[in-house]
Amino acid sequence: MWREALFITAAAAALWAAGTIRLYLTDGSHHSVREYSVLQDRVRYYSTERGEWEEIPLDLVDLKKTRAEQTATDEARKADIAANDAEDKAIREMRREVSRVPQEPGVYWVNDAELTALKSAESKIHNNKRRSVLKAITPIPLVTGKATLELDGESSLQIIRRERPEFYMRLSTEERFGIVKLTPLKGVRIVEKWTVEPVTKTVLQEHEDVEIFRHQVGDNLYKIWPQKPIAPGEYAVIQYTEGKTNTQIWDFSVRASQ
User: Fold this and answer.
1) How many CB atoms lie within 10 A of CB 128?
2) Concatenated DSSP letters of the chain
3) Is this structure's pTM higher than 0.70?
4) Which of 77, 97, 117 is the last residue of a domain?
5) Does residue 116 sit in the same domain as residue 224?
């Protein structure tokens, strides 16, 4: 019996330290106790309701139910502790990673243990069979009608072999941003299709968005990544103002893992 008392005390030690436990009785009721032990034909416990030690006959106590709840509570508490530890570890790792992101605006690919800066692409406007270079953040005059925002070449030189690449994006200003899928076509990649309004010259932009997660980790600093694996192909991270011609582009090509 004394061995049983020691076993119960050891198994419930963490629970007692954390707070009250329920000592169930055979009639279905329970006592709220801080700790208890089995002493031959009785159970001795410290009542949290009355703040003193009390005893009750062993045959009136439902030890099976009491132990089952203790075990379940203990396992749940351990799981919570493990989850909190994992979350704390993830936060510490992210803080270390964020501290390595350069202060210059741009897009930085999380390349295993390194951060690789993506080069900003020089885009062109294809309008009425003419192409004009679009400098970053510098709007250019547009004639009414249709136009496309393009990059030279059908494939990016910046190759990523990941189905769900992760990026840090430090914005140059508070604007919209995301990941888009590009359309290769006759020596170029189409980033967006534009429709220019006749009077206001407002640009209606059409691009193929990739659904992403956005997590802000600092002032104008975000971590972004696709919600689902993306197929091999041509993509870009873009920053833009709705209705304006100031789209900035960081292109990349997703290839299958070798």
Assistant:
1) 10
2) -HHHHHHHHHHHHHHHHHS-EEEEBTTS-EEEEEEEEEETTEEEEEETTTTEEEEEEGGGB-HHHHHHHHHHHHHHHHHHHHHHHHHHHHHHHHHHHHHTS-SSSEEEEEETTEEEEPPPPPEEEEETTEEEEE-TT------SEEEEEEEESSS-S-EE--SS--EEEE-SSS-EEEEEE-EEETTEEEEEEEEE-TTT-PEEEE-EEEPEEEEEEETTEEEEEESS---SEEEEEEEE-TTSS--EEEEEEE----
3) no
4) 97
5) yes
The label of the residue with tokens 């990016």 reads 156
Q: Are residues 149 and 90 in the same domain?
A: no
Q: Are residues 42 and 119 in the same domain?
A: no
Q: Which of 75, 97, 119 is the last residue of a domain?
A: 97
How many residues in the chain?
258
Residues 113 and 240 in one domain: yes
User: 59 and 179 share a domain?
Assistant: no
Question: Which residues are paired to 148 by β-bridges?
Answer: 126, 193
User: Tokens in use for 136?
Assistant: 């970053």
Q: Looking at the 3D structure of the chain, how many domains does it have?
A: 2
Residue 114 belongs to domain spanning? 106-254
Q: What is the pLDDT along the chain (258 residues), one digit of tens a residue?
A: 334 443 344 444 444 344 689 999 999 999 999 999 999 999 999 999 999 999 999 999 999 999 999 899 889 989 999 898 888 887 787 777 788 899 999 999 999 888 999 999 999 988 765 555 544 444 455 556 788 999 999 999 999 999 999 999 999 999 999 999 999 998 999 999 988 877 777 788 999 999 999 999 988 999 999 999 999 999 999 999 988 888 999 999 999 876
